[in-house]
Design a protein that fits this description.
CATH topology of the largest domain in chain A: Rossmann fold
Radius of gyration of chain A: 34 Å
Subcellular location (chain B): Cell membrane
CATH class of the largest domain in chain A: Alpha Beta
Shape of chain A: elongated
Structural class of chain C: alpha+beta
Structural class of chain A: alpha/beta
Number of helices of chain A: 23
Low-confidence stretches of chain A: 270-277, 548-555, 608-612
Largest interface: A-B, 84 and 87 residues
CATH superfamily of the largest domain in chain A: P-loop containing nucleotide triphosphate hydrolases
Strand content of chain A: 5-15%
Shape of chain C: globular
Low-confidence stretches of chain C: 1-39, 278-283
CATH class of the largest domain in chain C: Alpha Beta
Oligomer: heterotrimer
Strand content of chain C: 15-25%
Family (chain B): Belongs to the binding-protein-dependent transport system permease family.
CATH architecture of the largest domain in chain C: 3-Layer(aba) Sandwich
InterPro entries (chain B): BPD_transp_1_N, MetI-like, MetI-like_sf
Mean pLDDT of chain C: 86
Mean pLDDT of chain A: 81
Chains: A alpha/beta (about 600), B mainly alpha (about 325), C alpha+beta (about 525)
CATH architecture of the largest domain in chain A: 3-Layer(aba) Sandwich
CATH superfamily of the largest domain in chain C: Periplasmic binding protein-like II
Membrane topology (chain B): Multi-pass membrane protein
Helix content of chain A: 40-55%
Protein name (chain B): ABC transporter permease
Helix content of chain C: 25-40%
């Protein structure tokens, strides 16, 4: 189970429930007399003596509501325990059993779950009779199938993981698999489910009382009190208020505990500290891009809402027909840089730049014509298996931009889709367009992704780690397709990769990024020849197997770079690489940010190599 | 919560069949339905056997002499071997004969025929309304992602979702029928009479459902394929309706099946509040006077109905999400 | 057999109409209206239970009585004060062994065929065989062959002779269960119970539309003139159509009445207060509320040896521990305090409060302290609130009370069939007649096929009961009844509590009579 991160709603709700539980313990001890005493004033309205009036026998409604807390909570807990116990046993049991038992068990759960729980409860109440025990059994067993179904869902994801499969292959008995491997791994979501079930059981129990088959006098729970209160709602509304509020508040609190737990256990829960967005001062245009550059990026920063710069004043350009590589470790800001160009930054991040243009299209403007964006920039994402919509056929996804933004209709759509798949060397394209993504292989999907990016005829393709998720053999094919497109159609490509080997072979020019900054711009030829200046680029090259080993017989062990890049919020005032740099200068590197001059941003390089 | 996977997983438990994906799928589902039917028939038969006490005594009345009880027992065929009784019961079912009410001597089949349409009417309308309301609301809240909208959504849905249907129903009557006089307070006379019962069912269910949708939508919206779709610069409507919705529905309908079943149960309570002459109210009535044939018949038919609805959900899922049909996990 | 069927019927009656609303033994019929049968508009009436049987002989609940009384008219009616009024019969004579009734001229069934004396005899014979209540109509000693029913089509007379003297024949014939069914209905077999049979009606209305569990629509028969001639029938036209709607929940009925979806609805709970004060005849401008006793509550004892109820001192102490006012308040304080086991609308009922034992908690405490009492009651009326009160009051008097609030069927089995372990019960009596309600305190025990669930051994009471039911002279009858009740009350075999009333809230412009304290829908008239 993951560590619980306490949050305010969770703590509040737990405290509230604790208070109610305390009431359940204390109230019957203190108020029992008052709750059963006949005051003589039947159905009295609200008064100082009876805050919620009295019932038909002249008993104090408030006292009865408070005393009923115990029975209500006991019944709700017991029924929840039955539902959970039976449900968890069934739901996880099927996953530690053999295949046949499992299929049968899952089918049985399906059958049971499709039966309305309240009707099932009514049947059980008929068999067992009425009263607290019967109600608990009825609602508990009635709720078990739903619990089993949801538990089976959770268990399914865990049961198919390696460590469980392995345990079973090693002959660990089912019970141990269940207790040691399955349950601990779904304990978190189960807790959430439990609190939700608690709220549902509470309402269901009161429903039984409403129908007259729940708790019978002289016993009383909130449902029974509410039922008799509702009967006199129009003449003495106060009588219904107490139990109604009690049921709703307890249910809401239990629900909030569920929400709070879910949030506390969710690893993706974002820290929602939202400081006012600070617009970073955008420096004056400084990068001198050629006038005919396709993409011009000048002083681009990508910032978090709290002002932290994930990308820090990056400038570069892409010429028409040029393949530019952006290389760096993960977290270096290369993808964010590319996504800023594509205007696809994740929510919460904002891009600011002195200049950010594609041809004459201002990509930094508040609003950009969606049609021009969609047709001007094609995007190839990293994971082709996740980047296609699993519910839609290939054709629709390939040609959506054509249809939505370029008004292509009818048979033309089909023709273009088939043609595009042919261009990326997919066999039987006519069949593939009718298929769903899950029917294609990874390599085919990525080529189809490139085809989709190409279809509107973009000037620029942004390819974000297009080969990372693919097998090595398939990687080469996909890169081939990209370079082929570039050659034949003159489409510019902005290729993002953490693999300096890949960018070295495919690109014309390479930008090396480190900790949100560009540290070096180098031609592919120089890169392949090892003619790089920045100590970080040199270290990257040293850590990369392919270029080092080309043709060389002596295989030096791969160098690793000691240390880690700084966190964006803790980026030093000076060179971000200084702390890991073997040649850092004591004087300036730590204090002064090196500027990108002559395609390299390093104080030390310029000292050692005064003239290039 | 891994809400998405199990239905797909269970649906996909079989191996590829020569019938093609739809054929194999239908065979599996119809076989499942048959299993449900058999289970229900056996279950409802055993239910009456399980009830403590003697049905013959209940029918004969509390003051009946032992001879009276024996005569009733014989009339009801309760003195014959269990298997013969079951064969009679099952045989009767095949002929559409569900027995007759102890209390009113009406044939149970006719009782169900009279009552079921009313329940079906509000249940189906409610399911439709819940889906039409909960999905857009949940999706909108997830898409907006604003903290304020989120917390007020959580508060409202949490509160309404935790309020029993009959309380909501009573409040609706108080407001819209008594105070404002806009809608009928009860009965099944006009189309307007549908509004309040359906609203009483829909409000809490929508809140529960909308929360599920929001949670699932948050997951769907974070998927890579949604970024791909955003890369195509689609209008929000197209983005959410075409790309998010089908994926959302898989998970939503899986859990929605549970809510659907819950709705059928909820009609029992709501029918009682609104004097809606549905089957739920009848079954409770029969339970209270121990009119076993009616209980038995209603329980059987409601179960079959629920199973059919479930099958319908599966079919819709298979249409929406090709992976369900192919039997691969949706995760 | 007939004996046990009677009790079975009575128990079923209790079971079904406790949750419901109207009186059970009430005579049915309508006034001798000069209405020409064309009638006024539609009157919409709400009930909280569906019809369980359309067979008048098998009726077991408020809605059953309401519907069958409109479809099947009895020969005579019983009016306030015990006087009989003409129904289908225009005149009659009665002695303890022979009753002769003469039918009105020109009677027809709803299919237009004439209703003859021999058809009426067939209907009465069926009533004798099928109805649980027939036992007390013709007398326990006159079962089967011992009662002969003959008719003469020429003179239109029906003659009933009993071998043993019995003085309740006319009272029995005035009951809803004795409503006359035409040949079509008698030939229909079980179908008579399942729905209105075409052409079977003898009453003012015939079924136009039936939707079980939801609503029934009745149409006034053209040219119908033989309404029962009660004294208090309101002026006005009978409704052309009666629409009876079912809603389980009294609040729902009240909502419908308030929003104009209903014109008349009965309430046993506090919802009646929404339509004006529930005292008889009061109104709030739009509605009139009329009350009638529904349940007569009394405390009954298990007097078998070893039970606390076998001791007269304990029975008296129980009476001293209870406050009738407090009990009445449990049901909203609108009930009538009882001076016998039935209410004061019943003919010959004792109204002498000196026969009752007043509340004296101190005295009660001296006797009841530490006495273990198993109280079992039915939860059908207000969830058993009355039982809770009695239990609390006895506890307050020092008794060790074990309260069982059973559902009605279980209560009937445990207490009235004496198959349970019980000492004391709060009996919800449906019947408003001395003979019927009093049958529980004499004769054999349930195990021997009798009604005497508490094994009461009160010979004085039994003697006077027999005397009262064997004469037809009103004065002699009432004198005997007075002595019978005195014997029962002074030995604390029964401790009268209070009635739970049904309050009929009616929209202005509609009125009806309640002869002997029971709703009679065939007296309903559209007045405004």
């Amino acid at each position: 189970m993951r560590r619980v991160r306490w949050n305010a709603p969770l703590v509040t709700a737990l405290a509230g429930l604790g208070l109610i539980a305390l009431l359940g313990i204390v109230a019957p001890l203190v108020l029992q007399e008052e709750a059963t005493a006949l005051s003589g004033a039947a159905r009295a309205p609200v008064s100082a003596e009876h805050w919620l009036g009295t019932d038909a026998l002249g008993r104090d409604v408030l006292a009865r509501t408070l005393v009923a807390t115990r029975l209500t909570l006991e019944m709700t807990l017991a029924a929840t325990a039955i539902a959970a116990g039976a449900g968890i046993l069934l739901g996880t049991g099927v996953w530690v059993s053999g295949r046949r038992v499992r299929e049968l068990g899952l089918r049985l759960i399906d059958v049971l779950v499709s039966y309305p729980a309240l009707i099932l409860a009514l049947v059980i109440a008929t068999v067992v009779g009425t009263g607290p025990t019967a109600s608990v059994l009825a609602i508990g067993l009635g709720g078990a199938p739903a619990f089993a179904r949801l538990t089976a869902n959770m268990a399914a994801s865990v049961a198919q993981r390696d460590f469980v499969t392995q345990a079973r292959l090693m002959g660990v008995p089912p019970y141990r698999v269940l207790v040691r491997h399955l349950l601990p791994n779904i304990a978190g979501p189960l807790l959430v489910l439990l609190s939700v079930a608690f709220a549902n059981v509470l309402v269901a129990l009161s429903g039984l009382s409403f129908l007259g088959v729940g708790v019978q006098a002289p016993d009383y729970d909130w449902g029974a009190l509410l039922n008799s209160g509702l009967a006199s709602l129009y003449t003495n509304p106060a009588e219904a208020v107490g139990p109604a509020v009690a049921i709703t508040v307890t249910g809401v609190l239990a629900g909030f505990v569920g929400d709070g737990l879910a949030a506390a256990l969710d690893p993706r829960a974002r820290d929602t500290k939202t400081a006012p967005a600070q617009t970073p001062a955008v420096s004056a245009p400084s990068h001198r891009a050629p006038a005919d550059a396709l993409v011009t990026v000048d002083g681009l920063s990508v910032v978090l809402p709290d002002g932290t710069r994930l990308v820090d004043e990056v400038s570069f350009h892409v010429m028409p027909g040029e393949i530019v590589g952006l290389v760096g470790e993960s977290g270096s800001g290369k993808s964010l840089t590319a996504m800023s160009v594509a205007r696809l930054l994740p929510e919460g991040l904002s891009a600011h730049a002195a200049q950010l243009t594609l041809d004459d299209l201002d990509l930094a403007a508040p609003v950009v014509d969606p049609a021009r964006l969609a047709t001007g920039i094609g995007i190839v994402f990293q994971d082709p298996s996740a980047s296609f919509n699993p519910a839609l056929r290939m054709k629709g996804q390939l040609t959506e931009t054509l249809r939505v933004h370029q008004g292509v209709r009818g048979a033309e759509v089909d023709r273009r889709a088939v043609e595009a798949l042919e261009q990326v060397r997919i066999k039987e394209p006519a069949r593939v367009v009718r298929q769903y993504p899950h029917e294609l292989s990874g390599g085919m999907r990525q080529r189809a992704m490139i085809a989709a990016a190409l279809l509107p005829g973009p000037k620029l393709i942004v390819a974000d780690e297009p080969t990372t998720a693919l097998d090595v053999t398939v990687q080469a094919e996909v890169l081939d397709v990209l370079t082929d497109i570039n050659r034949r159609r003159g489409t510019s490509v902005l290729l993002i990769s953490h693999d300096i080997g890949v960018v070295g072979t495919v690109c014309h020019r390479v930008l090396v990024m480190y900790a949100g900054r560009v540290v070096e711009a180098v031609s592919a030829a120089d890169l392949r020849a090892g003619r790089v200046k920045h100590p970080y680029t040199q270290a990257l090259l040293a850590a990369s197997p392919r270029l080092q080993d080309t043709g060389a017989a002596e295989r030096a062990p791969l160098a690793t770079i000691p240390g880690r890049p700084p966190q964006p919020a803790a980026r030093p005032a000076g060179c971000a690489f200084a702390a890991r740099c073997p040649v850092a200068l004591d004087t300036v590197c730590a204090t002064e940010r090196p500027r990108l001059i002559d395609d390299v941003a390093c104080h030390a390089v310029r000292q050692e190599v005064p003239t290039a | 919560m891994a809400a998405t996977s199990a239905r797909a997983a269970t649906v996909g438990a079989g191996r590829p069949a020569p019938l093609g994906p739809w054929g194999a799928f239908l065979v599996r589902r119809v076989a499942g339905l048959a299993a449900v039917a058999v289970t229900l028939v056996v279950g409802t038969f055993l239910m009456v056997q399980l009830i403590p006490g003697d049905p013959a005594r209940v029918v004969a009345g509390g003051d009946a002499t032992p001879a009276d009880v024996e005569r009733v027992r014989h009339e009801l065929g309760l003195d014959r071997p269990l298997f013969t009784q079951f064969a009679d019961y099952a045989g009767g079912l095949l002929r559409g004969d569900l027995g007759s009410s102890f209390q009113t001597t009406e044939p149970v089949a006719r009782i169900i025929g009279d009552r079921l349409p009313f329940t079906a009417e509000i249940a189906l309308l409610s399911v439709l309304a819940v889906l039409l309301l909960a999905v857009p609301i949940g999706l909108a809240v997830a898409a907006r992602g604003s903290r304020r909208a989120d917390s007020s959504f959580t508060f409202v849905t949490g509160t309404v979702g935790a309020t029993p249907e009959y309380v909501i129903g009573t409040l609706l009557v108080l407001g819209f029928a008594i105070k404002l006089g806009w809608l009928p307070a009860a009965g099944a006379e006009t189309l307007a009479s549908l509004v309040l019962p359906v609203a009483a069912l829909v409000l809490p269910a929508t809140c529960v459902m909308a929360r599920i949708v929001r949670r699932e939508a948050a997951q769907v919206l974070a998927q890579d394929y949604m970024r791909t779709a955003r890369g195509r610069r689609l209008s929000p409507l197209r983005l959410y309706a075409r790309h998010a919705l089908p994926n959302l529905l898989t998970a939503t309908l899986t859990l929605g099946g549970l809510i659907l079943a819950g709705l059928l149960g909820g009609t029992v309570v709501v029918e009682s509040v609104f004097a809606w002459p549905g089957i739920g109210q009848r079954v409770v009535e029969a339970l209270l006077v121990r009119d076993y044939p009616v209980v038995q018949g209603c329980v059987l038919v409601l179960g079959l109905l629920a199973a059919l609805l479930n099958l319908l959900v599966d079919l819709v899922l298979a249409l929406l999400d090709p992976r369900v049909l192919a039997g691969k996990g949706a995760n | 057999m007939p004996r046990s069927r009677f009790l079975s019927g009575a128990v079923t009656v209790a079971a079904l109409s406790l949750a419901a609303s109207a009186c059970t033994t009430g005579p049915a019929g309508g006034p001798s209206s000069d209405g020409d049968g064309s009638g006024g508009g539609t009157v919409r009436i709400g009930f909280t239970s569906d019809v369980t049987s359309f067979d008048p002989a098998k009726g077991a609940g408020a809605t059953d009585y309401a519907l069958t009384s409109l479809l099947y008219q009895p020969l005579i009616g019983q009016d306030d004060g015990g006087a009989f009024v003409p129904g289908l019969a225009e005149k009659w004579t009665s002695t303890p062994t022979k009753t002769t009734l003469t039918l009105k001229k020109g009677l027809t069934c709803s299919d237009g065929s004439p209703l003859t004396a021999s058809q009426t005899v067939a209907s009465l014979r069926r009533y004798q065989a099928e109805s649980a209540g027939a036992l007390l109509t013709f007398g326990p000693a006159n079962a089967g062959e011992k009662t002969t029913i003959t008719g003469d089509d020429k003179t239109g007379t029906v003659t009933i002779t009993t071998s043993a003297p019995w003085g309740e024949v006319l009272a029995g014939l005035s009951g809803t269960a004795a409503g006359i069914v035409c040949k079509a209905g008698l030939d229909a077999g079980d179908a008579l119970a399942r729905g209105a049979v075409e052409g079977a009606a003898t009453g003012p209305y015939e079924m136009a539309k039936a939707q079980r569990g939801a609503s029934y629509e009745l149409r006034l028969r053209k040219g119908y003139t033989v309404f029962p001639q009660y004294a208090a029938v309101p002026a006005g036209e009978p409704a052309g159509r009666l629409r009876i709607q079912i809603a389980k929940n009294e609040s729902t009925l009240a909502n419908q009445l308030q929003t104009g979806a209903l014109d008349l609805a009965p309430f046993t709970g506090t919802d009646a207060k929404r339509f004006g004060d529930s005292d008889n005849g009061s109104d709030n401008g739009t509605f009139t509320v009329k009350s009638a006793p529904l349940i007569r509550h009394y405390v009954g004892f298990n007097q078998r040896s070893g039970r606390p109820g076998a001791d007269p001192k304990i029975r008296k102490a129980v009476a001293q521990a209870l406050s009738v006012d407090a009990f009445n308040n449990v049901f909203g304080g609108t009930g009538q305090k009882l001076t016998s086991y039935v209410d004061d609308k019943a003919p010959c009922v004792s109204t002498d409060s000196s026969l009752l034992t007043g509340t004296d908690k101190a005295a009660a405490r001296q006797v009841l302290k530490g006495v273990v009492i198993k109280l079992e009651g039915s939860n059908a009326v207000a969830g058993g609130a009355g039982n809770s009160y009695v239990a609390e009051a006895l506890r307050a008097a020092g008794a060790d009370v074990k309260l069982t609030n059973a559902d009605n069927a279980t209560w009937a089995t445990d207490v009235t069939a004496n198959q349970g372990d019980w000492d004391l019960t709060v009996f919800p009596l449906i019947s408003g007649a001395l003979a019927r309600g009093g049958a529980y305190f004499l004769g054999p025990e349930p195990a021997e096929g009798g009604l005497n669930y508490g094994a009461v051994q009160n010979t004085a009471y039994a003697r006077h009961y027999v005397a009262a039911t064997s004469v037809t002279d009103r004065n002699a009858k009432c004198a005997a009844w007075q002595k019978a009740q005195e014997a029962l009350l002074t030995s604390h075999d029964v401790i009268p509590l209070a009635t739970v009333d049904v309050h009929y809230a009616t929209r202005k412009g509609i009125s009806f009579a309640t002869p002997t304290g029971a709703l009679s829908l065939s007296t309903l008239r559209v007045t405004g």
